[in-house]
Amino acid sequence: MRSFMAMVLAGVSTGMLLAGSAAAVETGEIIVTALPVPKGDVAYDKVSIPRARLTGSASGRIEDVLRDVGGFQQFRRTDSRTANPTSQGATLRALGGNASSRALVLLDGAPVADPFAGYIPWFALAPERLGAAIVTRGAGAGAFGTGALAGTIELQSADPAALPAMQADVAYGSRNSVSLGGVGSARLGEGSISLFGRFDGGDGYVIVPEGQRGPADVAARYKQGSIGLHSVVQVNETTRLMVNALAFDDRRVRGVEGNSAEVKGASSSLRLVGDGRWQWEALGYVQAMAFTNTVVALDAARAVATPSLDQFNTPATGFGGKIEVRPPVGDALQLRLGIDLHDETGQTRERSRYLLGRFTRLREAGGHNQVVGGYAEASFAPAATLTLTAGGRLDHWRIADGALVEHDAQTNATTIDIHPADRSKWEGTGRGGIAWAPSPVLGLRGAGYLGYRLPTLNELYRPFRVGADATAANTGLVPERLRGIEAGIDLHPLPGVNLGLTAFVNRLDNAIANVTVALGPGVFPQVGFVAAGAAYRQRRNLDAIVARGIEAEAHVARGAWRFDASYAYTRSRVRASGAALALDGLTPAQTPTHQASATLGWTPATDALLAVTGRYTSGQFEDDLASRRLNDALTLDAVAVIPLAHGVALTLRAENITDTLVEAGISTSGVIDRGTPRTIWAGFRIVR
User: Fold this and answer.
1) In whole angstroms, what is the distance from residue 565 CA to residue 456 CA?
2) For residue 98, what pLDDT is reported?
3) H helices within 58-145, ranges in order?
């Protein structure tokens, strides 16, 4: 039955395109962006998710809504209530996962990834404050191009025209879950200010299935909060200033007392935009984040927990900015010229190797990554039906001040002392495309691109453990480089109906992966003892990962009804030699072949909504050697918003209605880490 339903989802999704900019237009929203969308963007594979969808999911989590986009994935199948934060990178097009982001995630133009490990603090990105999310699949060559290896996810704050003066949401759910959120907006002369806050907490669920649990297994409780503001100041007739500020705190217990993580952070950005005859933009941002993590190891009966790691502080800072200018060169031609800076510094401080009742090692590891670059892009429309675009970047990257140092906790003797030489290089990337619309119902597009990504500080310098498995860092990692081509067709056969299909081939050279080097028992560099049956891995550059596939998206609107769907098929394979030869020809870890999503919504009246969402993910492998397989999963969610009185509505939400076992991980001993079980919510929404 599950396979049949999955085939139905995929079949309905295939051949249908979720309209990009049209989706935002149909909602009637006015989104405050920076400069206008570049003309050449019509040549690339873009999907836009409007505010109504961002705020109408069963989970209320932004990372869950992004799964509407075929090919979007995180390293694990768990969301930001349960997953270890460092596993929550974002990628597209099944390029394989190692927990760091291969997609560039921006909030109002500023990067949001953690400067040390590259994960995304999804819990802090409240959907209520957003006006749209725009996803571009394929490497980017515009601002901050080093992060846009697999694509770009642009989150845009909502304009006050799309926000109520005040909105408050309160909900209570399964396992004592509580969600409180509020957003308020006001006009200030010709400008505006929006304030928002959110708290989520709950007892959580036991992440190990009932038949595999032991006495040490407990529910994965969580507490998360964020506050922030978005303000727009009209400086003069052609210039406006946008101010963003965000602060957040997140605490999670991952299913065993002693397995806990906390993320604290704050970020801010200033964006000055001029939209006169000469269009220009200046952006500056700063990030400060801190991560703590404690890990315990369980015995075979899952009864006794022994401390394994105390990552007691991981401070990280990021800052940077960009300046872009668009000179007036005529209606048919558009030029974008810009420079940018992205600077990351971070260090982990840990206690490890617990023996005879105490930690015996003290470790400090980290460094400094910096990218300074410039970009230029031209878009030319020689006719109303034809657009040509091409652009390039030239970056100078620098990996510096790296260190991995470990001391004996009692004698202070140095046990590891790695100080790699600083290195730097010039890196060139680019992209180009063509879009042709021979008729109002048909659009054709094609594109090619080159992209790259620096290894994160975490990948370069920090060894880590997951259960019994241990992974060493690699200070010699080189940047990943991607080459790709794509071709797409968009159809608009009827008003409110948009259909489309994109085919692509991507090759990721020097792909960074966690490569199995040996199996325990044994003592190995950086990590110490690894038990029998467990894996010792090291982060290494593979020869390549080659991904070929198709992506289909859908948007169908008929009166009060709306249907959105996506499907992605990707055949992704590792190319490896030398010490990683055993991986050659295998599917990369945590990479599904099929993904499908479909949402049917009905708005029978103003402020009312009934919607159901089905999602399917095919089986995938837990590890690089493809020895542990995670089963496929089909889930069903539902949302109902029922007006009760003027400005007051009852909200009902249900996640994973069928209580499907979603396998998010599996250990060397076969113990499963599961995703969100059935979760029911009831609450109220008050709008003024």
Assistant:
1) 34
2) 66
3) 62-65
Q: Distance between CA 268 and CA 282 in Å, rounded?
A: 14
Q: How large is the average pLDDT for residues 352-374?
A: 95
For the beta carbon of residue 339, count every other beta carbon within 10 angstroms. Answer: 14
Give the integer Cα–Cα distance in Å for 86 and 291: 9
What are the structure tokens assigned to 363, written together?
């470790």
Residue in 148, 480, 145, 479 with CA at minimum distance from that of residue 338? 145
Q: What DSSP character marks residue 102?
A: S
Percentage of residues of the chain with pLDDT beyond 70 = 95
CA 148 to centroid of chain Cα atoms = 12
Alpha-helix runs per DSSP H in 90-235:
none
pLDDT, position 30: 43
Separation between Cα atoms, residue 637 and residue 58, nearest integer Å: 6
Say whether pLDDT at 264 is over 80: yes
Helical residues (DSSP H) of 550-639, grouped into ranges: none
Q: How many CB atoms lie within 10 A of CB 673?
A: 25
Can you give 201-257 as a three-state secondary structure string? EECCCECCCHHHCCCCECECCEEEEEEEEEEEEEEECCEEEEEEEEEEEEEEECCEC
Nearest alpha-carbon partner for 102 in 62, 74, 124, 78: 74
Using CA of residue 88, residue 90, residue 95, residue 100, what is the dihedral sign? negative
DSSP 73: B
Which amino acid type is present at position 575?
A: R
Bond from prior residue into 127 cis (ω within 30 degrees of 0): no
Whole-structure pTM value: 0.93
Q: Which of 393, 390, 487, 483 is nearest to 431 (CA)?
A: 390
Q: Residue 611 and residue 195: Cα distance in Å, rounded? A: 28
What gap in Å lies between CA 571 and CA 581, rounded to an integer? 19
pLDDT of residue 33: 52
**β-sheet bridge partners, residue 410:** none
Q: For residue range 275-304, list pLDDT tens digits in order.
A: 999 999 999 999 999 999 999 989 989 999
Structural contact between residues 387 and 434, judged by C-beta atoms closer than 8 angstroms: yes
Reported as a pLDDT band with limits 50, 70 and 90, residue 162 is confident
pLDDT per residue over 629-640, tens digit each?
999 999 999 999
Give me the count of residues in the chain.
688
**Contact in structure between 41 and 578 (CB atoms under 8 Å):** no
Residue 20: φ, ψ to 5°: -75, -90
- Determine how β-strand 103-107 pairs with β-strand 151-157: parallel
Q: Are strands 386-408 and 166-173 parallel, antiparallel or unpaired?
A: unpaired
- Report angle CA 446, 451, 454 to the nearest 5 degrees: 160
For the segment 134-153, the average pLDDT, to the nearest whole number, is 92
Phi, then psi, of 84 in degrees rounded to 5: -65, 130
DSSP 627: -
Largest CA distance in the chain: 77
CATH of domain 2-687: 2.40.170.20
With a cut of 50, say whether residue 15 has pLDDT above it.
no
Tell me the pLDDT tens digit for each residue of 180-202.
999 999 988 888 999 999 999 99
d(CA 593, CA 626): 14
Strand ranges for 14-102 from DSSP E: 45-50
Rg (CA), the chain: 24
Phi (first) and psi of residue 66, to 5 degrees? -65, -15
